[in-house]
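Final report, results section. Input specification for complex C-07:
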Amino acid sequence: MRVLVTGASGFLGTAVVDRLCTAGHEVVAMVRPAARLEGAPWDDPAVAVVRGDLRERGPWMAEISGVDAVVHLAAAASGDLSTQFQGTVLGTEHLLDALDRSSVQRFVHISSFSVYDFAAVRAGAVLDENSPLERQPEHRDAYTTTKLVQEHLVRDAFADRADTLVVVRPGAIFGPGKHWDHGLALTLGGHLGVLFAPRSTMRLTAVANCADAIAAAVVAPRAGGTTLNIVDDALPTHREFLRMCRRAGADVPATVAVPWWAVAMIGRLTGWIDRRWCAGRAHLPEFLDRTRQQARWKPLAYTNHRAKDVLGWSPRITLGQAVADMVEAGPRR
Amino acid sequence: MSRGPVRRVAVVGCGAIAYEHLGHLGRLAGVGLVGVCDTSPAAARFAAERFGAAAWFTDLTTMLDATQPDAVHVLTPPHTHEVLSLQCLAAGVDVVCEKPAAPDSAALERMLAAADTYGRHLVESQNLRYNDPVLAVAEAIAAGRLGEVREIDLLLSLDLAGGRFGDPNLVGPGVHLPGGAVHDFLPHLSYLFLLFAGLDDQSPLPADLEVTGRLGNLGGNPRVGSDHLDAMVFSGGLRGRLRLAPDLSPDAFRIVVRGTRGSVETDLYHPYLRHEGGANVGKRVAVEHLVSGTKLALTGVTNLRDKVQRHDTYHGLGRMIDEIHTAFAAGRGAPITPMMMRTSAALVDRLVALGSRS
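Structure output:
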């Protein structure tokens, strides 16, 4: 198939392009004009690079014509609401305008776990594809807000061709270059780490495993019309992940652990102060904000059963190997 | 805003600055947000849902016809202000336009003439006039605590190339204004200087007003256009230094006003207020330092509280919008008068002209 990958030069995008090439697809890799491309997979003759920025209309809109499938990864993960809206929502709007949707056989939209309403799932329960979506994203952050709008936009666009669309919601993607602070919530002065909710499970997926799942979603016959959460098999707790990173050689500082109940208590207290004195409009850091605390540290269970069943996919890289690869690539602190 | 018939207000342009306007409009009593408009359906729909607008549109004509607003906030990129404002005015609608309302005085005059022709108001958003530190400085001047104002030093340090203005992935200039990215901020420097100098309701500018300096590109990013201004303004005994620097840290909007009897200093991004005055002898200066130091420490607490409570640099915008719509509803002229806009635009013209000399 001729597959368009947006956000192709990003952390996950590069792995997806590589995986699609390996699977024998012809890849149209859309990257930003200033992106630097070196080595694999960019030297693969199966990769055609289209330079353009989804935030604005331009020649790229004609250059992506004739693709059979799309993997839509491009999004903005940082910046204020306006910045993320442009990068995530307007970019998607322009992409959908540019595509001849009637000729696209499969559109794999990369959403995120951040769209779920973590407060609505009781502690200890399984968060899966049937869990409710965040109803008040304005109380979370710009990323959640824009990823929700983006997902709605894509679903609306394919409302009459639901079997074309696959919505993939990866967990926290890690790998060489992206280590999620080894599971730490904070690092104080570089010498003391604070580990929140040490017994809560991290919803991790190694970048190679996630790329495999996405590549599988492009062709899997039963994937059309589904929403799939992507996490790896043996999910560690925050403490286990930290220990694995440390054993693999990561330079992790001495650590103080704060149990979930204490984190939650802090969140309730700041929430009460917010309502009492700030009319519920307080802008707090993540570790003090009850709503955002739950999204990151609440003890929940995660499953990849549906993705395995629908895609015939299984994580091929073990957690230990993925951690070793990540730590070996650095950066070391 | 005073109670009375609900003012029907609409917004065109749903980008970053619109979120600020819409947030305040949504909280104003006496204002009904009847519509929002953007060329992007997703942006218009999101703004409508987030801020409670009754309807969303992708075309201004359609919005004007469908919603029959009393006023429209024009919050689109600056080079589109004139066309959209003229369309609104011709439809019999008051206009609140983001700064700069026009790229130059000539365009502003066309817009003001249209407002006169159609019997409507046109007002440029000059929100920093309503910020706490600016009000405090203006009050100190008005109360005579500085004596006669002699020096006004305005420094805006901001990395203009770091954001959308200089994004190397985007095509064309970051902003379509003759003064480049700096131009987008010149109205702030201009109207604050004129406010503190007591010149903002005196048009034309004083005949002896002299502007010298440089407007250019320090960073080398052509997409930004001009990213640096260092200008001196002279008029009689008054001196002003108006600067925008892209290569200083931290980001700041520093204001120092010095007079014959004292000086006052503040920062709009990290507000504090330092006042020095009186005779420069004996123990007075040391005592003033103690007082200033104590106030500075307390300001740190206030700023932390303000940050948590989102009392940010845009806090004056809500006051400005409230005053504007209160005035409109009462049939009065806008608090930011055409004279103020003309004077500010005239100084901006002079500052932009430095670019052609640099």
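Chain B is about 40% helix and 20% strand. The mean pLDDT of chain B is 93. This concludes the modelling results for the funded period.
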